[in-house]
UniProtKB/TrEMBL annotation:
GO molecular function, one term: ATP hydrolysis activity
Pfam families from the UniProt entry: ABC_tran
Organism: Escherichia coli
Top class in the EC scheme: hydrolase
Protein's UniProt keywords contain ATP-binding: yes
EC id: 3.6.3.33
InterPro entries: ABC_transporter-like_ATP-bd (IPR003439), Metal_Ion_Import_ABC (IPR050153), P-loop_NTPase (IPR027417)
Record protein name field: Vitamin B12 ABC transporter, ATP-binding protein
Domain annotation ABC transporter: ranges: 18-84
Amino acid sequence: MSIVMQLQDVAESTRLGPLSGEVRAGEILHLVGPNGAGKSTLLARMAGMTSGKGSIQFAGQPLEAWPATKLALHRAYLSQQQTPPFAMPVWHYLTLHQHDKTRTELLNDVAGRWLLMTNSDVAPINFPAVNGNAYVLLRWCCKSHHKPIPQANCCFLMSR
């Protein structure tokens, strides 16, 4: 397997590092740790959203050398903290992502995925009450129902 990304002494003040390692094509990594351990910070660095100490190579080039538009064609980044600035029931949010309003089974499938992953009751929850992890999973569910992703190929970042 070819190396997709190399990290060398990646650090972020007291939150992260220094960390070195590599990611190979087709590899699935799980980042596990307590709140504040630097998981989201590391992912933001690996996605090229932030800069700091150390170096990251992506596809053989320094990550900072990639134009944002080109980088966006090769990776996806879903921020944990980007919550909507409004109070909306989760169920309503899900309907916004349903392209074919006549296919309610898709909406039920997405809601079902979210319920299973968060152990939540979807109906009464409004967005200000949805924590960061649950919101990341909700957005992932909304995106993935357009092109289903097999469970075996999924990796979730959860800080508990």
